[in-house]
Amino acid sequence: MGAYILRRLLLVIPTLLGIMIVNFTLVQFVPGGPIEQILAQMQGEGDVFAGFAGGEGAPAEETFGSDSEYIGARGLPKEFIEDLEKEFGFDKPPLERFLTMMGNYMTLDFGQSYFRSISVIDLVLEKMPVSISLGLWSTLIAYLVSIPLGIRKAIKDGSTFDTWTSGAIIVAYAIPGFLFAILLLVLFAGGSYWQIFPLRGLTSDNWDSLSLFGKIADYAWHIALPIIALTISAFATLTLLTKNSFLDEIKKQYVMTARAKGLSESKVLYGHVFRNAMLIVIAGFPAVFIGVFFGGSIIIETIFSLDGLGRLGFEAAVARDYPVIFGTLFIFGLMGLVVGIISDLMYVVVDPRIDFEKREG
What does the sequence similarity comment in the record state about its family (predicted)? Predict the structure, then answer.
């Protein structure tokens, strides 16, 4: 197993490098870089993308030089543009910029945001509590509900209970998370009916003055609606996966042998079937958590005014804040690759009979 882990760790380097190369290359062809964003704001256009919409603008003669590559550089001196390029590092060729960036990343220097006076690491740490709250609780609740429900559905396969619960989770899966989030706001956050939950934020303004129990209650009060909206569609896949895993195991020979020995049904199910059936479900927990943590909260964070990593990534992409974009891409890409290795280790922990080295051989 040690040799397998070592090979996987060594593969992290070229994989992560490939991810960074592809994304860095694509960014070079995307219009509206950070300098153009600044110039557009200075000219009162608000957003650089207005310049690409074909709207009216100053004639070419009025722009800074006929060869200016910046749409928003109308009437600005050449020296100012050159100073901006030097400040952002765009006076160097792309290859040199990429090598410098990766060299800094190797020393855990992720630079500073272009548009905020804060380092990328501090910015990520500042947004982390919101994303951890959303990812951790939604994943735990999904598992705590889906696993018992899936087991029950497998035991009652084909019954009325199995039929109506399948219909319920399919309907829940079909409801878009953002639409359900808006519905929750309208119903329970003072939209048109009841003002039960707060509209925004992770905690109240008087958080510091609350007791320990008060802080826990206040936190749960704020996070309830976002968690429900984020979790509603997660039950379907996990529940059906648990059910099908149990059904596959129940039909195997060792289960019939255990029953023939006179073991009780609960002993058969939870003493023999559970470990094998839960292998794929439990071992996939790290990957599921990372997926919810980094990928599923952008819209939910926006709707509930939660300032987390999903919203940070979206705003950085819109503003062309390259240090934040590439810094978070490197950090989360590395975490995702490491979590993939942890998922493999989880398989071995759940079932020691699995040997990845023999499979590769």
Answer: Belongs to the binding-protein-dependent transport system permease family.
Measured between alpha carbons, how far is 350 from 342 in angstroms, rounded to an integer? 12
Q: State the maximum Cα–Cα separation within the chain, in Å, rounded to a whole number.
A: 93
Residue 21, both tokens: 């190369």
CB of 279 within 8 A of CB of 350? Answer: yes
| 22 residue type, one letter | V
CA 202 to chain centre: 18
The residue among 131, 181, 69 whose CA lies nearest residue 314 is: 131
Question: What is the signed CA dihedral for 312, 114, 110, 96, rounded to 10 degrees?
Answer: 130
Q: Cα dihedral sign for 163, 166, 168, 171?
A: negative
Written as six digits, the tokens of 68 are 């200016």
Report how far apart, in Å, the C-alpha atoms of 42 and of each of 14, 36, 71 are: 41, 10, 12
Q: Mean pLDDT for each consecutive 10-residue tract of the chain (361 residues)?
A: 78 90 84 71 54 43 46 60 72 86 89 84 86 82 87 87 89 82 83 77 80 86 86 80 84 81 78 74 68 66 82 83 88 83 74 62 50
Find how far residue 167's CA is from the centre of its chain.
28
Which tokens belong to 272? 């023999």
CA 195 – CA 149 distance, rounded (Å): 32
**DSSP annotation of 119:** B
Residues 6+ apart with CB under 8 A from 317: 325
For domain 121-360, the CATH class is: mainly alpha
- Tell me the three state secondary structure of residue 30: coil
DSSP 43: T
- Please report, for the chain, the start and end positions of each structural domain, with discontinuous segments joined by +: 2-89, 121-360
Structure tokens at 17: 């490098």
* Residue that has been written with the tokens 């599921």 in this structure: 288
pLDDT for the residue 41? 65
